[in-house]
Amino acid sequence: MNPRTAAKAERYDALAREHGVAILTGMLGWKKICKLTGLPQRSARTLLSWILDRGLPELNVTPDTAQAAHRGDGIARESVRLAAQGARHAARDLNASAEPDASAPADASAPDADTDAAPREWIYAKEYVYNATDDKYVTFLKVAGGQVVVSGDEHRAMKRAYSNWDGRPASINEICRDFGMPRAYLMEYKQRHGWTHDSEPFTDEELLTRGPDELVEEALQMRRRALFHDYEKAKWAETQSKAERYDRLEQTLMLPIVRHLEALTPTYAVPRVALRAPERPFAVVVTPTDLHYGKYGWADEVGRRYDRQTARDYLISTAQALLAEVALRGAPDRFILCMGSDWFHIDAYRAQTTSGTPQDVDGTAAQILWEGCELAATYVDLLRQVAPVELRVVPGNHDKVFSVSVLLYLRAWFREAQDVTVHLGNRQRQHVVYGRSLLSFTHGQGQQEKPRELGKVIAHEAAREWGSTDFRYVFTGHLHHVFISEEGGLTYLRSPALSGNDRYHEEHGYTTSRAQQAAYVIDAERGLVSVLMAAPD
After folding, report:
1. Is residue 14 part of a domain?
2. Is the residue at 107 inside a domain?
3. Structural domain tally of the chain?
4. Is 226 domain-assigned?
5. pTM of the prediction?
6. How many CB atoms lie within 10 A of CB 197?
7. Are 289 and 397 members of one domain?
């Protein structure tokens, strides 16, 4: 380059440094450049071309950015403005550090100037510019062909999401989806800012302006939020799994039963036996608990065979014997019937209890459920020959879902019957008042095996009924043998079971209880006056 050309280039470089920012951010044409610089028209045109072709190298403003700014691109103009602002601040800080105040006394113990200085309002880096006043990050992306402006809140949120500090870093696709940034932009953006999964979850600007204690507390909060998020995710997965299991149950078992009911809507009439009027009004509580329909016990292994047919025979024969005893007292006001309570032996398609314990069974799950519901309806028909029936169902530990099925079955089957009342409800404990007596029903597992604890629960759940009655009884099952106790104003009556033994009972020696069905005569004024028992032939 000859001296004349070099001098000319040096002149235009100086003019570009002095007026380039104003020309680009103000989108000045050559006429206004003439007025600004005092140059003739030809020189003004040359200066404008010089700036657009070369950019502003001392400010890291590329030719593409310069051209975009001059065309009116807002992002490019903001980038040029912030670059100029950063350069001015840098020059000011350099002068301040080079020329200390001579009037200030020397003090070797004075704190470091960087420590006490007010936080900068800007951060200027080679790859991006941060404006603290507007809280914006301006980053040049080659893939975008210019500058990209991101708000401080969004920039910091992306940094936290990408960091592995809380143990669950977001993927590139997740961040693109959540923040609406194209994948190609984000790939270059994180590279420009030096982000990795191992990075701390704070920006360089935060590390410069915020205290350590504040950052530590926020990091701990992030860990807590991540832990809660993982807990909720696991909880939702468990809920979804249960919903899928219920859906399979509905499709494979419950819907076929509904179709069966629709095809076999009862049109029969049950005859009522003519009985004399009783000396005193009474009701009969019947709890055929723990039938375990579908259980299987091989005679050579458990001593006496138990299967579906055996369960049916036991139930019907003992019910007929009890009805004969009741008939001797005259016509009762009604039967208060509690079903469910391990009426079924299993609760799942794979021959398991509600909690997943495998069982020895006689028949498939669909067969057991189907026939068990029909057997329940037959049992109710036996009772209604003598008196109206008031029916409740409580879940057992073997059949929490199947017990709901039999409840819905009986409600649909007897929906037109005037002498059968089916109470909808799936609570563990259910309560009814007859005369001066409070009658409560529950299966009896867990804490409900303890009369003292159960009395507290019933007094709380049925406080009004407890206070308005003189006699309180609770009827349970579960342990398959008779037990009667009185504790704190509550009489605890554990009913026997009709169920036979299987391998589990044989192996553990639970074989001493006799298969029986019980009925309890409740006088309207005197409470429990008689307990009736019937054993299979």
Report:
1. yes
2. no
3. 4
4. yes
5. 0.54
6. 11
7. yes
